[in-house]
Amino acid sequence: MIIENINIAPEKKNVCLSAYIRDGGDLGGVKRPAVIVLPGGGYMACAPQEGKPVALRFAAMGYHSFVLKYSTLFSVFPSKPDLSRANPGVHYPGPLEDLGRAIIAIRENAERWSVDPDKIILCGFSAGAHLAAMYATHWNRPELSYALGAGTNLLRPSACILCYGVFDLETILDLNNEYKELFSTFTYALCGKKALSEEEMIKFSPVKHVGNHMPPSFIWATAEDKMVPCANSVNMALAMAEKNIPYELHIFEKGRHGLSLADESSAVTAEEINPHVANWVSLAEGWLKKRFSPGPQDM
Hints:
By secondary structure, this protein is of the alpha/beta class. The chain is built from 10 helices and 8 strands.
């Protein structure tokens, strides 16, 4: 395996694209799909358990894999958020542009890395799933092309895997919610405001922007998730159904928020190990194989 760290935004010290490339010499130079893993963390930092362990799992399936450490409020999770120590210039559209730069970098290096440039998959968790869904619904916007100096042909994603994501901000705007303060920090990290107007709620809810340009998506969540209710995932699936966009939705009965792979390879605590939820990986693998073979096309 070839491992590289690519500085895709020199002006942002905390943004980095880490590549985990299947060795083309050992594998005959086969062009393989690429998976970009987007960790969660509420746009405050990138959760490590939703990064490298996930990328290595996709690499084991036969994909070239990448982890994008995108713009977040802090470089690492603080014990107590102190906005005076926040990173500058991290609010939207910063993370969206980071992801666009990552996709451009992968396509520009497709020959060297033996990547199939027409098969780039986004896999996001929680806030990372919000970023993936925002990108999937906004990649064709002229303002993104202008900011990145690239045509939409370089920016198109091929598929999404959306894991317990934030897609509809109205579903978590509950004044009695125990996560009210966390949500206000999330919105501040997102756009610099702790309270959003109705217009801003719509702007930052990707479920409101689903169109025919959105790629097929695999979506999963758990019914027990109190931090990001599974209604987010259900509503995203319904919006895609209305537009006849291919999707697959799985809501697992048990399981807390932030399970990542839901097994020992990513778990930080024992409650993050859930063998039933861990099945999402094989389900997603099967779903991807219907669209992209990770190996030689005549296999």
